[in-house]
Amino acid sequence: MLTSTFQHIHGIGEKTEKKIWAAGLTSWQTFLDAPRRAPLRQEQRDAVCRQLEQSLHHLRRRDAQYFSQRLAPALHWRLYPEFCGRVAYLDIETTGTSPHECAITVIGVYDGHQPRAYVQGHNLACFGADIEEFSLLVTYNGQAFDLPFIRRELGLPLRQAHIDLRHPLAALGYTGGLKKIEQRLGLEREGPLALLDGWCAVLLWQYHVQGQAGALETLLRYNLEDVIHLPALLAEVYNTRIKRLPFWLPGLAFPQPPAIPFDYDPAVVRRVLRATGKDFGDQSEIS
Q1: What pLDDT sits at residue 35?
Q2: Contact 153, 145 (CB under 8 A)
Q3: How far apart are CA 19 and CA 158, in angstroms?
Q4: Angle of helix 215-228 relative to helix 266-275, nearest 10 degrees?
């Protein structure tokens, strides 16, 4: 999809991009091969050709950031197929909501093969070096929450391109919290983990610090449940959007979530749900 995109070019908006497509110029190469077919003034056509040559150069260099800086956040989903080989889905847990007053407790990362967790006091310092192997980050609401926390607390620039799924999902009518959207799309979490939320994650860390057995593993399981569903949400966005195009592009296979190498402790889950006043219904489900 990226090589069919023209909105990253200065002066090209949604309407002009559609006019270019309508002229049969549905890729950078078709435009470069026949620029006179474009419904643009000659001066503008020449400028577009120059910028498309630059785009091909940056694509060959695998420079995802070049394109993310030039595309609106709601269009960052277009980056995925070209950069899917070096993508990291991530989500953080913290001691609160303010990056100026709170700290990161856990960062969950999924590279499409194996989920992994970085934990305060254990291996959190390794995150900075490990994340450098990726050129594309995918989050839900990470632009406002996860990335500011990481930049401030860990001092990382995070220069990678970033797809914040909150924007393209909202454009499709999927608004609200991540779990609400997952439910609408039929993505289920195991048992009582579906009842936990961000405040529960804060309490789980407090219980871990207090020495309660099973609290940390439950927190890691909760965190990675967030992370492993991000590929499916991205596939939903991508496939829905390309179906609306005036030309055909192949869709993404709907990914199956991987196994998570952590389990939850039913006793800890019960304690968290009671502390937050949540109704967990049939207690046999978490016995």
Answers
A1: 97
A2: no
A3: 35
A4: 80
DSSP code at position 285 = G
**C-alpha count within 13 angstroms, C-beta hemisphere, residue 254:** 7
Average pLDDT, the chain: 93
Asked if 113 contacts 102 with a C-beta cutoff of 8 angstroms, the reply is: no
Q: Which tokens is 14 given?
A: 């949604």
The closest alpha carbon to 75, from 182, 135, 198, 161, belongs to: 161
**pLDDT (0 to 100) of residue 203:** 96
> Bridge partners of 87?
136
The pLDDT of residue 284 = 45
Closest Cα partner for 189 from 175, 176, 178?
A: 178
Residue 100 pLDDT exceeds 80: no
The residue to which tokens 């450098």 are assigned = 132
* Bridge-based pairing state of the strands 136-139 and 161-164: parallel
CA distance 245 to 239: 10
